[in-house]
Design goal:
The complex is a heterotetramer, with two copies of chain A (361 residues) and two copies of chain C (395 residues).
Chain A lengths: L1 H7 L15 H6 L3 E8 L2 E6 L4 E7 L4 E3 H15 L2 E4 L5 E5 L5 H10 L31 H10 L1 H5 L9 E4 L13 E6 L8 H7 L2 H6 L6 E6 L2 E6 L9 H5 L12 E6 L14 E8 L6 H17 L6 H8 L1 H8 L27
Parallel strand pairs in A: 7-8
Antiparallel strand pairs in A: 1-2, 2-3, 3-6, 5-6, 8-11, 9-10, 11-12
Chain C lengths: L7 H4 L9 H11 L1 H16 L19 E2 L16 E5 L6 E3 H14 L3 E4 L6 E6 L1 H13 L15 E2 L13 H11 L1 H5 L9 E4 L8 H4 L2 E7 L4 E2 L1 H10 L2 H4 L9 E4 L2 E4 L9 H5 L4 E2 L4 E7 L13 E7 L1 H6 L3 H17 L6 H8 L1 H8 L25
Parallel strand pairs in C: 6-7, 7-8
Antiparallel strand pairs in C: 1-2, 2-5, 4-5, 8-13, 9-12, 10-11, 13-14
Helix pairs in contact in C: 2-3, 4-5
The chains are: A alpha+beta (361), C alpha+beta (395).
The structure holds siroheme (4 copies) and iron/sulfur cluster (8 copies).
Amino acid sequence: MAEEVKKKRLTDIGPHDYNEYLSPTIKKNYGKWAYHEIIDTGTMVHVAENGDKLYTVRMGSPRLVSGSFVRDICDIADKYCGGHLRFTTRNNVEFLIEDEKNVEPLKKDLEKMGYNVGGIGNIVANIVHTQGWVHCHTSASDASGVVKSVMDELYEYFVEDKLPSKTRIAFACCLNMCGSVSSSDIAIVGTHRKPPRIDAERLRNLCEIPSTIAACPTNSIRPDTVDGKPGVKVNEETCVFCGSCYTVCPAMPIANAENDGLSIWVGGKVSNARTKPTFSKLAIPFIPNEPPRWPGVVNAVKTILNAYKDGAEPGERVGEWIERIGWPRFFKITGFPFTKYHIDDFRLAETTMNYSSHTRL
Amino acid sequence: MAEEVKKKRLTDIGPHDYNEYLSPTIKKNYGKWAYHEIIDTGTMVHVAENGDKLYTVRMGSPRLVSGSFVRDICDIADKYCGGHLRFTTRNNVEFLIEDEKNVEPLKKDLEKMGYNVGGIGNIVANIVHTQGWVHCHTSASDASGVVKSVMDELYEYFVEDKLPSKTRIAFACCLNMCGSVSSSDIAIVGTHRKPPRIDAERLRNLCEIPSTIAACPTNSIRPDTVDGKPGVKVNEETCVFCGSCYTVCPAMPIANAENDGLSIWVGGKVSNARTKPTFSKLAIPFIPNEPPRWPGVVNAVKTILNAYKDGAEPGERVGEWIERIGWPRFFKITGFPFTKYHIDDFRLAETTMNYSSHTRL
Amino acid sequence: MGKKHQTPLLDELKKGKWISFVKEIERAAEKSERTEDLLGQVEESYRDKVNHWKHGGMAGVKGYGAGMVGRFSEFPEKYPGIKECHSMRIIPSAGFFYNSDFLRKLADISEKHAGGLLNFHGATGNIQILGMSQAEAEDAFQAIAELGFDLGGSGSDLRTPSCCAGQARCEFANYDTMKICYNLTEEYQDELHRPAFNYKFKLKFSGCANDCVASAARSDLAFIGTWKDKIKINQDEVKNYTKKFNVQKYVLDKCPTKCMWFEGENLVIDDENCVKCMHCINEMPKALRAGDEKGASILIGAKAPLVTGPRMGMMLVPFYDINEDAKNDYEWLKGLISNMWEFWDEYGVSRERIGELIGRVGLNTFLEGVGLEPVPEMVEHPRSNPFIKFTEDED
Amino acid sequence: MGKKHQTPLLDELKKGKWISFVKEIERAAEKSERTEDLLGQVEESYRDKVNHWKHGGMAGVKGYGAGMVGRFSEFPEKYPGIKECHSMRIIPSAGFFYNSDFLRKLADISEKHAGGLLNFHGATGNIQILGMSQAEAEDAFQAIAELGFDLGGSGSDLRTPSCCAGQARCEFANYDTMKICYNLTEEYQDELHRPAFNYKFKLKFSGCANDCVASAARSDLAFIGTWKDKIKINQDEVKNYTKKFNVQKYVLDKCPTKCMWFEGENLVIDDENCVKCMHCINEMPKALRAGDEKGASILIGAKAPLVTGPRMGMMLVPFYDINEDAKNDYEWLKGLISNMWEFWDEYGVSRERIGELIGRVGLNTFLEGVGLEPVPEMVEHPRSNPFIKFTEDED
Ligand code: SRM
Ligand code: SRM
Ligand code: SRM
Ligand code: SRM
Ligand code: SF4
Ligand code: SF4
Ligand code: SF4
Ligand code: SF4
Ligand code: SF4
Ligand code: SF4
Ligand code: SF4
Ligand code: SF4
């Protein structure tokens, strides 16, 4: 009897077969696409070797969505494209349309419903981001709120094609950096500035001391005896406020209302097109949390984007532009101060120095 | 009385005033040179703003020279250029001639005396090198003998201008690398392959144990007790045979007749012209010592030079050429095997990896 | 029905042109008291400038060690609806292709068993349902399983693999990203559901060097499509492009190896020197296409900054004949992966990603351990320091 | 007179077209028994494939801790002439300019007091006389001093500074390399003669970015000439060059920042973007010249591989107004150097070069220590890891 129940319970059924979700045109032309054309920021067409066409309409998404949102997009998909849709790796929605006639009506419907059509071509791409105050215990800032504030300000760049290249912005609410945040054109990262507080008693019950020590990038955690019992102490001289200890040990909270905020990073990329993938580099070490609309962060991003738009050549990513004009000029143009924080002092710091006399004067 | 003697003794007189040695034309045009022209591999002319001309004839030197050699060049200088001459930073001799008519006779005289005129322009420059078996206790190979063997083979490239750019070869007889060896177009470096031998008794008398331990790049030396007395032991698993311990502690000799030899490095440069200064990279990890004429090393250098000559564009240094064609192709063209030794495993090893999908296939 | 909690700060985020997540939470809150409480707590965070979640906590379904992330409110009395507010991770359909039927049913489940809030998708690629309590987990899981979907990775396990749209909707794909993503997810279900690794392990598949799933920055093992033979040139289309824009300046001059030039009106490519970066093909998709001998490069070790600093994937296998291996159910690859996991298991320490392990023990040690030969493509350049560890066997 | 020792192996090195050091040793040996013994021992090394010197040993002149390198034969009985075979280092004339009178006298001294063998020059730039015994050192020193020359550096001291020919014979020089080299050598005699540092410290001066004295690779402090304002263009000469070679390909395309282009026949340079690399000036010396606001960049920390790997000089002072400071006897620079030496003395450990110290403590700590401000020119790029050490004072 118990056995029977067990058998009925579904488990380890594995991934769903994607083939079920492919539209007829896709199935037919799988692996046989010839080229694509971008029609406008909301629309592109992929043309198969046999001439078949597949239209894609892209729509912005906040990623954190309600069941009602899901039903909205399902309705549209049913109405115009046989219920076929997908999400992109940057959380946009894509409607996969076989009949060209349906493209414009679909877009009109979406706009009527208040959704954002765009995100294709030389635009500001949807900001990849994380949980923030909505769901994560280690967050130094909210995620969705910052993203919303920035996207409101940059909205024109999502719907109009007027940048030198695609600009990929990413947000992470702590240094764990859930996402390709460390290699984005512009990255916004939640940042603490005070050492963890140690709750010695909870620590004894909740934390494994060796793994807590091992979690620290700067070896700032040492074993210690507190009230005659094993504990840890933090060397505040060397602690870099990364929060890694808190990730493994709940008794070392690091969030701090007055001192948490955000740092801004620029010039990373992942693609291998032209240049190799590269990390984002520090632009602004710290901007305080300013909910609900984070004006400091919004302005910083806008400043970078404007400088990029004015200065870059067509096709140049943010980092390629900065490499061409040089970092000193980047700081000059944006007006961001260059500080000691910009000079690396971590493990491989010495490899980031200027080993040459090359300099713009 | 004692005081008087002391006064007479010359001491701390400091550097000699160079002005005494400048020819009239140089004095007159000091800081007022307008341009230069290379006439042939042995001759160039510097033209001053006022039109004055100064001819330079360059002559090869083995650097290790006799008093007789010195007198030879003095005679020439007296005969043709008022006794004015200098040495270059790569140990060549330069005669500084004010009267154009003296240029060719001077060169003829030098050639008659068996000296080598050349070294200007797109040539193989004089090989900068070190003491070797002639004078240094830490040498893993001879210096002058290898240099002589290589220069004999490459002689045509010293006297004829037929390379894409100047090729700077350097030699060091041990990893101390006395000279800009670690950043040469082609570098030849004396290399040990066995750990040091420890003479425990001498060590006690001659060596400071903490500084011996600190001298090791791989932390392979540990304190040890030998016969109840303090000493050191070497972890042969991690020792990289660098000889640094021998430099500070005479009781840890590392030279080894069967296992010493030379490694070959390529693609370094010091100038900031175009590209930044860069280190030479490993081409061949080991070639045994083959005195008196080191055919293995000579062939290796020749192979690199030929490949460079055939493959590089005008103006390209060795390293710039390799960067353009890629390291895989360098190994393919030269036929040198790529081995585990070529993959860095020292301190900053991880920064030398290919962090991209860029690859020639 | 009035609002349960006043949210003056969050209300500011309903303004503006970009779609508002606050409105989305409110839409869900209309049907869910617990999501009303979520709104309330987030408003408090907006006021206090700190999050109000307890650290971690347990959540999961029977037999699985992964697939749910536990989350508990700091103020369970004030916001009883989110006393438990776990998220459930669901393996997506490869390439994120769906139909409306499935999505509607999933929306229903999210409202029935959780807060009616979802992530399409989490940063690793899972569908996430937010606001679930442990009590509902089993039913939610069964409902999802009935739709043919299973839970994704979390903790020290194989994380849910993900891929770009690839051959389904992209002319640039050099191999079938969706097929291999599906195949390996299926193959390694146990590693995915039951954490037994030192730490997380991620797989991502991009069909070409554009790397639209950011595999080189975010996955321990990244598969990036490439080709071996010559780029195919349609000279007529090249001519069309030259009429439209400055091909010399925007394509040729930006080729990383400068291996293209014009001979008269004809474009010539020195393919031996091409590093398959995709740039020229991106700019002139009608004129240029990758060759026929397609495959993938395998990069290893990418990860986020903690503990030793961020890492990009580094070249491990310059050309993996993935299309051939596909015919054998990816046998060669699975062998390699199993060698890697063994090596990682044996030499890695807890919370050490495979990239950090390689950084610690050195690439050579790793290569020997997994049975790969050193090749120059692995390095940016050979070593420049002279500290060579000569070993007996090579004397 | 027959040869004292047979040298069949070394005789092989008398063949060939390049000038033979063996012949040079033989020429010296004709007048010096000890150099005959040197030949014999080197022949043994050629046979045995190892050197035959004892490790180090003492040698020097009164009141100096530097200027001689002790060297003793392993076989003093067999080769009594080189029982002691020290070398004496002599500060060269700046830029290595000499006249025949001095050189002849020096040759005499080398034959009278040593083995008649010399190095022009040692790798640091000293003249070296080889094969001296301690007994002869004082007389040799006095003879040399009478010629107006002094001993050079060795051991843990300031090493003999050196420089390129600079303004004496080069149109590219942006400052007077020889003058500053002379001045600092004079100023720091005590530091040079009496080792009191943690380790050696080297100064080299190159008049421009071509760096003909390899300062960026071999000196703890490297001075590389540069300029601030616009490159001067002679458009007529540019035209002449375009007739001679492909200026676009070999000059403009190789400019590291691509900051030059043609507008019609005229060459235009975006000087704000020029990194003063010298390439264009090198290729077209008649057409292009550096601007008028000349100075030098100061790079710090270059050194050979041991112990932590080779280092290049890194940018410390992008523009040092050296020509202005020259008017004040290099007062500003001497202040900076004294701050550096103090910092090195205080925080460095024995046998730690200043570059290694900076590597260990971090550039910021060093900058604070010596009183320089951080500027973006110092780095290839700002940090990419997020581990920022925020300090109170900046909050
Ligand atoms: C839909 C999507 C793949 C998916 O499976 O979901 C996708 C689709 C396409 N990508 Fe992508 N890329 C997508 C994420 C990416 C990412 C990943 C990311 O952004 O996190 C990258 C790497 C980002 C980076 O480098 O930091 C990426 C780097 C590229 C590039 C290289 C751009 C460059 O020059 O660096 C191209 C080529 C191009 O744009 O010419 C490209 C080209 C394309 C093409 C043209 C390929 C094709 O023929 O179908 C597609 C339409 C481009 C467009 O949106 O303008 N795709 N693409 C992703 C859309 C994300 C979004 O909603 O905005
Ligand atoms: C005489 C000397 C300076 C001295 O004070 O002694 C010197 C003299 C000149 N150098 Fe040099 N360089 C001298 C060592 C160097 C060094 C140092 C070294 O070789 O160790 C370098 C850096 C080497 C490196 O990068 O690895 C050097 C890198 C240059 C460059 C940059 C070359 C490049 O493209 O990378 C130039 C520019 C050029 O050649 O067009 C240059 C140009 C020149 C000019 C044309 C400058 C001038 O107008 O007078 C001189 C004649 C060049 C020639 O020999 O063809 N000089 N030059 C040195 C001659 C050494 C020798 O005997 O061979
Ligand atoms: C949900 C998600 C963010 C999101 O909003 O999408 C997420 C959320 C968390 N991540 Fe992450 N990570 C998520 C994708 C990533 C990624 C991106 C990726 O996979 O492409 C990364 C960077 C790539 C990488 O793996 O290095 C990432 C790097 C981390 C790290 C740092 C790992 C490292 O080795 O450096 C941690 C810390 C840890 O593992 O303890 C972490 C830890 C966490 C934890 C579990 C917090 C913690 O302290 O233990 C977060 C739970 C938040 C919550 O409330 O759900 N998360 N995390 C993503 C997973 C959703 C999904 O499964 O689809
Ligand atoms: C004579 C000379 C080589 C030559 O043939 O020209 C030389 C010879 C020695 N060097 Fe050197 N070095 C000489 C220039 C250099 C240079 C080049 C330079 O100064 O431009 C370097 C590389 C640059 C640098 O300083 O890093 C150099 C880097 C070393 C090192 C490694 C230092 C380091 O920090 O890595 C050592 C080892 C040591 O200091 O203990 C060393 C040690 C030695 C010793 C003293 C051997 C020892 O183990 O203590 C050698 C004495 C040999 C002898 O019999 O005279 N020598 N040494 C050069 C000095 C002549 C002169 O004063 O003009
Ligand atoms: S980035 Fe940090 S705070 Fe944000 S979701 Fe990831 S682990 Fe949580
Ligand atoms: S916050 Fe980071 S640096 Fe500070 S103690 Fe914790 S783990 Fe270490
Ligand atoms: S390189 Fe080594 S062996 Fe040669 S002279 Fe310098 S210290 Fe001596
Ligand atoms: S030879 Fe080098 S690596 Fe080996 S013990 Fe000596 S110092 Fe250490
Ligand atoms: S990675 Fe390449 S194959 Fe995949 S979607 Fe992007 S462009 Fe297409
Ligand atoms: S793919 Fe990249 S490397 Fe290859 S030819 Fe095109 S632009 Fe050049
Ligand atoms: S460094 Fe510059 S100034 Fe000095 S000699 Fe070389 S080219 Fe002339
Ligand atoms: S000096 Fe160098 S950077 Fe400046 S314009 Fe000339 S080539 Fe370009």
